[in-house]
Amino acid sequence: MYSRAQQLEVEEDFYSKQDDIRERYNCQIKDMMAMGDIEQEYTEYMTKVWNAGFGYDSEAYEASWKRTLEYYERQGI
């Protein structure tokens, strides 16, 4: 039989391992959620590019906005 001290030591070891596993999974879940947010932002941006008529060419889309801003800055608006 185990003494009470040995039993407490075994329980403490068991629960600390469970905490480690729970903490690891929690970190992985947070990472996956962050990756999902990044992917959603990228999808929304590419949808704007597509809807603006540039297809998959995000560089042309950005260049168009740059030209538009420069034009209105020169106009003093």
Fold and architecture overview:
- The structure is a single chain.
- This protein has 2 helices and no strands.
- The protein has 77 residues and is mainly α.
- It has one domain.
- The protein starts with a helix and ends with a helix.
Features:
77 residues, 2 helices, 0% strand, rod-shaped
Number of strands: 0
Please tell me what the overall shape is.
rod-shaped
Helix-strand pattern: HH
Give the count of helical stretches. Answer: 2
Number of domains: 1
The portion of residues assigned to helices is: over 70%
Low-confidence stretches: none
The span between the termini is: 86 Å
Mean pLDDT over the full residue set: 90
Q: Strand share of the residues?
A: under 5%
Largest sheet: none
Whole-angstrom Rg: 27 Å
Structural category is mainly alpha
Set down the secondary structure blueprint.
Elements: H1 4-51, H2 58-75
